[in-house]
Write a structure and sequence with these properties.
The protein is an alpha+beta fold. It has 9 helices and 11 strands. Strands 1, 2, 3, 4, 5, 6 and 11 form a 7-stranded mixed beta sheet that branches. Strands 8-9-7-10 form a 4-stranded antiparallel beta sheet, covered by helices on one side.
């Protein structure tokens, strides 16, 4: 077991999941990171950095601590006292994978405390059990573009790098949206024709992303499973989906459960996308933080630091 002088540093990217038609199955890793440092300690303690994390609990109800405890329970062991430090660039409750990244970070840290015996495939299994779907946790774990399945028992994922020809723009609203509330908006029964519609569109979206045919993405970003039911809770989404073809952009989707909107933009069209979303913000009365980035292709990383006690 790692001694007290060692600090486990886990750095995990955020994610954008669903990507339109790929509900609970497709995801992309984004270069906004959750950093967690863990060290064995005399007693449990949790510290967060940044005002945006002030709402996080600092006791055993903290998601990272709960995830580490879950890992130890699965291994029929008891989690020893730990000191945890948390920093994050990922906005909370905005559809950018903050909870998925926390779960991946907690599992990787716990695995490292137990000498790193679990493979990434086993970590994905535990993460999906906790999250309930594999798309966002797989993107954070592996990086790049991920295609996933989860049948309630077994999680599977394949991941692929994405070239810098594809850039995304994120319009992050100043309000939050609970994933649970967003899921409740989706009816339990979906018409067969809508399910078939999404299967075809998501299959072609995977094909175009893997083959670099990004200019064809606009043809297959349509969705009938979740976005039509969630768009009333996400200001501007319906309009952007309706108008996206008029602005020489490659597509738009609700990021995760929202309320962030993700746009797929061709090379040299960043300014066009920014101008358009600023227009949407002005005309629809929305405050957006606008960020553009490439896809994060490396996924979660672990580093062992040598030093004194965290705090």
């Amino acid at each position: 077991m790692i001694g007290r002088e060692k600090i486990i540093h886990v750095k995990v990217p955020g994610s954008s999941a669903n990507l339109g038609p790929g509900f609970d199955s497709l995801g992309l890793a984004l270069p906004f990171y959750l950093s967690v440092r863990v060290q064995l300690a005399e007693r449990n303690s949790i510290k967060v950095y940044g005002d945006h994390l002030a709402s996080l609990p600092l006791d055993s109800s903290n998601l990272i601590y709960q995830t580490m405890n879950y890992f130890y329970q699965k291994e029929n062991q008891e989690l020893p006292p730990v000191a945890i430090e948390i920093e994050s660039e990922i906005p909370l409750s905005r559809g950018l994978g903050s909870s998925g990244a926390a779960i991946v970070a907690g599992l990787l840290a716990a695995n490292e405390l137990m000498d790193g015996k679990k493979s990434k495939e086993e970590i994905l299994q535990y993460a999906t059990e906790l999250e309930g779907h594999a798309d966002n946790v797989a993107a954070s774990l592996y990086g790049g573009f991920v295609v996933t399945t989860w049948d309630g028992k077994t999680a599977k994922a394949e991941h692929f790098p994405v070239t810098e020809e594809l850039q995304v723009l994120l319009a992050i609203p100043n309000y939050t949206l609970s994933t649970n509330i967003a899921r409740k908006a989706i009816p339990k029964d979906i018409p067969l024709k809508d399910a078939a519609f999404n299967i075809g569109h998501s299959a072609l979206l995977v094909t175009y992303l893997l083959t670099g045919q990004y200019d064809k993405i606009p043809l297959v970003m349509k969705d009938r499973l979740h976005q039509p039911y969630r768009q009333t809770a996400v200001k501007g989404l319906e309009r952007v989906i309706r108008e996206i073809g008029q602005h020489e952009l490659w597509g738009v989707a609700l990021s995760g459960a929202g309320p962030t909107i993700i746009l797929f933009i061709p090379p040299n069209q960043k300014k066009v996308a920014e101008t358009y979303m600023k227009q949407i913000a002005r005309e629809e009365g929305i405050e957006f933080e606008i960020k553009s980035c490439f896809i994060e292709n490396e996924g979660a990383k672990i580093e062992i630091l040598w030093g004194s006690h965290l705090f």
